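A further point concerns the way the authors explain their paired sequence and structure data. The central task, working out the C-alpha cells from the amino acid sequence alone, is never made concrete. I therefore recommend that a typical entry be quoted early in the introduction. An entry of this sort, consisting of the sequence and the corresponding C-alpha cells, reads as follows:
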Amino acid sequence: MMKWFQYELFISLRYLNSKRREKFVPFITLCSLLGIAISVLTLIVVIGVMAGFERDLKTKMISMNSPLTIENSMDAGIQQYNRIISEVETIEHVTAAAPFVIGEALLRVASGTKGIILKGIDFHKENRVTNLEKFLKRGEYQITEKEVLIGQELAYRYALGINDVVILNLPMRSATSFGLIPRELKCTVKGIFSSGLYDFDMNFVFMPLDTYQKFLGGPDSVSGISVGLDDFDRAFVVKDKIRAKIGYPYYPRTWFERNENLFRAIRTEKVVMFIILVIAIVIAAFNISSTLVMTVMEKTRDIGIFKSLGATKLSIMKIFIFQGVMVGIIGTVIGVVSGHALLDNLELVAEFITKISGFEVFPKDIYLFDKIPAYISTMDTMIIAISSVLISVIASVYPAWKASILKPVEALRYE
C-alpha cells in the first residue's frame, strides 16, 4: 500500500516544505492551516459546552426532583396518597415514592422580599427518591415544624444563615375580623443546600409536608407523588405500569416530559451550531483550494516534467490532494488538541476574561449553573475531526484535477 503512493507523498511533502516557493504561497498555506485549526477548536468548545450543559442539567434535575411524578390531571390534588404510594411501590423498578405539596410563596427578610417556590416534603421518604440530603452544605436535613431548608444562592443573596428567621406569605388570604389578609408563617432556617443549579438554589425552599398542609389550611391532600427508580432509563416503561395500576385521573409524567421543550431546544441549538461551525470549516477549506491553485501554477513546469517521465493523471492528482489533506490533518489535530485543552480550563479562561474586561462571560442567573459545564464525547470529537479532514480532501480535488489534465508540452513551455 505504501509503495502505491510512496513517491507522490514524498513530492507532496517536498512541495509543502519547499523554501524556493513564492513568499505569498507559504503565507496562504499557514492561513489555511490556522483557519482549519481555529474552526475545529471553536466547534469542539461550543459542542462541548452545549453537551456538558445538557448532561449536567439532566443529572441535576433528576437528582433534585425525581425520574417520575404522579399528579392529578384534574388539578384537584391527590387524596388518599398513602394508599397510592403503597400500590406504586409494588411495581418493578420502583425503589420508593414520596408525597409533596408545591406552590408559590413570598419570602420576606430584613434585607428584602422575593418570590419563591415552596415545597413541602416528607424528609424521610424524600431521601429515598432524590438526593436532596447529599446536597446539604450546612445545618440539618431532618427538620421539624416551622423550619425550612433554603438554597445557597438565596442565602448568599439575602445574607441568611442557620437559625435566621424568615417570613413566608401565601398568595391565598385568610378571613379575620380585620378583613382578608395574606397567610403568614414565621420559619427558622435550619439547613442550606447547594445543587449546582443556580435557578434551583435561588428559588426553592423546603419545609415539612405536614407544616405546609396546615399552612394551607386545606384537606389532607398533596400536589403530587415523586417516584424513585433503580434505572432512570426505564422511566417510560414504569410510567405505563403506574398508569395501568392506579388509573384515571392520576397521571404519571417522566422527568423528560416535564422538561421536554427545554431539552429539545438544547438539542436543536446544538445541531444548528454544528452546522454553522462546519460552514466555517468549509470557508477555511477554500483557502486550501486557493493555496493548491497557486501551487499548481508555480509547479506547472514540474508537472510537465513528471508527465514526460510517465507520471499518470492519478499520480499528479495524488501529489496535490496529499498536500491539501496534510494541511487539513495538521490543522485538525491542532484544533482538537487545543479545543480539549481549552475545555479543560474553561473556568480559568472565563475568570481571566472577566478580570481583565469586567464582563461576566457566564452569568449564573442566566445559564442556571454555578460553573461552566463542559463535556465532549469521543464520538463527537471523531465526527468533528473526520468532517474536517473530509472537507479538506474535497477542497483539494478540483486543483488536483486541474493539475492532472495539463498537457506535458504546454506545461514545459509555461513560464
Notes: The beta strands are 68-72, 94-109, 112-121, 136-139, 147-151, 165-176, 179-193, 204-208, 224-229, 250-254. DSSP finds 16 helices and ten strands in the chain.
